[in-house]
Design goal:
single chain, alpha/beta, Carbamate kinase, eight-stranded mixed sheet, four-stranded antiparallel sheet, about 35% helix, binds aspartic acid, binds magnesium ion
Length: about 400
């Protein structure tokens, strides 16, 4: 029998009315004669509320208890959806992560799924039951403690379950009808993509597009899970397919650039007059790495006197203050004149696997941005993407400019 995983996010299960709507989507797929596993998030806003309660309870809280608290949102929605399905005459039961079990690492608050035993779910399918699974949570086998997978982790639960039960497809239902060329709120001409390659989706998610948790795309890519992003707000009787995330070979018309992403979660640090000698980069970046601060973009200016140089790089906004402190403390070791920072910056990125085979893609962007008077503070490139760091006030202008430049505007 064909197998399907359906995942519903917070806005799709926001109240009982929405949960009844979800049940109608599930009913359609059950009536098509498939084994169905449903993965649910907490009601929208619930996880934020639970997180806030932990912080109110104690400034420094036990991460294991945080997991016990925040995993509860999904427990509620899994039970509620099972109740509603049963009321419609559909056999269903809820599953918590530990009951399946979904085994994870013990990195509480951001645990990684290590193994999912499909046996119990298979028995449920054999009984003709829909499995309604609480997303976002698992269990650490050695300690028996509940874990959560990091914010947005239900996406990863869904894709990992699809891989574990050998599902033909994983449908991620959300409040938008697919993956767009860029954020439609800032570019009204953004287009929904019919297909996007795993690697592109991975970059888009990492670079700021918020549709899917990054880790879920990694899991889909590794296990080749055919994943659709689609809307739960479609009429359950007449749904649209959404966007398919798939192998690049399955994409016939490949664009050079597929999407433009932006992220405000970026802060800039510049060290002025750093001694231009071997070992300096290590003196700067090793202490940051040791404190688990991810440095992203780096530019070093070539000095004209061969004695000192300026070095600019970015860190996540959340780590900005910490990074500055570390560098100030290491001032004598590193040897620099001054430190400057800015948090009012944004990283705008263009993504497309077509960049592998086309030269000059980024160069066109630099020209287009400078024509609009936008100053580029840092650049990074990789095989299938490039990013520029610019002043946050230019976000919309830059995203729109690149969207038009690469022919992504909808007609
Ligand atoms: N409820 C969790 C969160 O808000 C997990 C999820 O929705 O994917 O992050
Ligand atoms: Mg989500």
């Amino acid at each position: 029998m064909a197998r399907l995983v359906m995942k519903f996010g917070g806005t799709s299960v926001a109240n009982i009315e929405r949960i009844k709507n979800v049940a109608r989507h599930v009913q359609r797929e059950v009536e098509a004669g498939q084994d169905v596993a449903v993965v649910v998030s907490a009601m929208s806003g619930k996880t934020n509320e639970l997180v806030a309660w932990c912080k109110e309870g104690a400034a420094l809280y036990d991460a294991r208890e945080y997991d016990a608290v925040v995993a509860s949102g999904e427990q509620v929605t899994s039970g509620l959806l099972a109740i509603v399905l049963q009321d419609m005459g559909i056999k269903a039961r809820s599953w918590q992560g530990w009951q399946i079990p979904i085994r994870t690492s013990d990195a509480h608050g951001s645990a990684r799924i290590e193994a999912i035993d499909p046996a119990a779910l298979n028995e449920g399918f054999a009984r003709g039951e829909v499995a309604v699974i609480a997303g976002f949570q698992g269990v650490h086998a050695a300690t028996g403690r509940l874990t959560t997978l990091g914010r947005g982790g239900s996406d990863t639960s869904a894709v990992a379950i699809a891989a574990a039960i050998g599902a033909d497809r994983c449908d991620i239902y959300t409040d938008v009808d697919g993956v767009y060329t860029t954020d439609p709120r800032i570019v009204p001409k953004a287009r929904r993509l019919d297909r996007v390659a795993f690697e592109e989706m991975l970059e888009m998610a990492s670079l700021g597009a918020k549709v899917l948790q990054v880790r879920s795309v990694e899991v889909a890519m590794v296990h080749k899970v055919k994943t659709f992003v689609r809307s739960s707000f479609d009429d359950p009787a007449d749904p649209k397919p959404g966007t398919l995330i798939c192998d690049e070979e399955d994409i016939v018309e490949q664009q050079v650039v597929t999407g433009i992403a932006y992220s405000k979660d970026e802060a800039q640090i510049t060290l002025r007059d750093v001694a231009d000698k071997p070992g300096v980069a290590a003196a700067i970046f090793v202490p940051l790495a040791e404190s688990n601060i991810n440095v992203d973009m780096i530019i070093q200016v070539v000095s004209d006197d061969a004695k000192t140089t300026d070095l600019t790089f970015t860190v996540p906004t959340a780590d900005y203050e910490r990074a500055r402190k570390i560098l100030e403390n290491a001032k004598a070791d590193i040897g620099y004149e001054g430190i400057h920072g800015a948090t009012d910056v944004v990283k705008v990125s263009a993504i497309g696997i077509g960049m592998r085979s086309h030269a000059g893609v980024a160069a066109r962007a630099f020209k287009a941005l400078s024509d609009k008077g936008i100053n580029i503070r840092a650049i990074t490139t990789s095989e299938i993407k490039f990013s520029v760091l610019i002043g946050a006030e230019y976000t919309e202008l830059a995203v729109r400019t690149l969207h038009t430049l690469y022919g992504l505007d909808k007609a």
